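Minutes, project check-in
Item: structure for the 166-residue chain
Input as provided by the requester:
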Amino acid sequence: MEFVSSQQKNIMFAILDSFLMLFNSYLFIFLFLPIVLTIFYSLKNKNLSICWLIGASFFFYAWWNYIYLFLLIFSLLLNYYITVILTNIKKRYRKIILSAGIILNLSILGYFKYCNFFIKNINSIFDDINLHEQSIILPLAISFYTFQKIAYLIDTYKFDRMQWTL
């Protein structure tokens, strides 16, 4: 027995869609973007303007799913500290730290993208093992920001110093 009609479902999905903030949504174009740009251009301090854009970007990311904002911030801080270590460690250990940073980044990406793939394959190969699939939602743009952070680590390794600041 169905408690909600298909027409009611369509109305509910239309209401939910109106709160989605995609780059082509009215919410983004007519509310979020004008507010962000107005405040950005009204700030006279360059560092404050950049901090405002970072905060607005975090807000935009959290609008989709705020739980994954913690993953993004953790990952950013982790990579920042790896670059601090890379710039302050003896030359002979730098490649090990770089490799560890790349492995950590790829491990986070691999967990979210391939966890259920491996669980399904292990379950199909071994009949006596019955691992339960995880209900993992792939974080927004995780591949993009993971490879951006890896590129940042490699640039820091190559140039032997951090060149990028606020």
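Outcome recorded: The CA atoms of residues 36 and 56 lie 7 Å apart.
No further action items on this chain.
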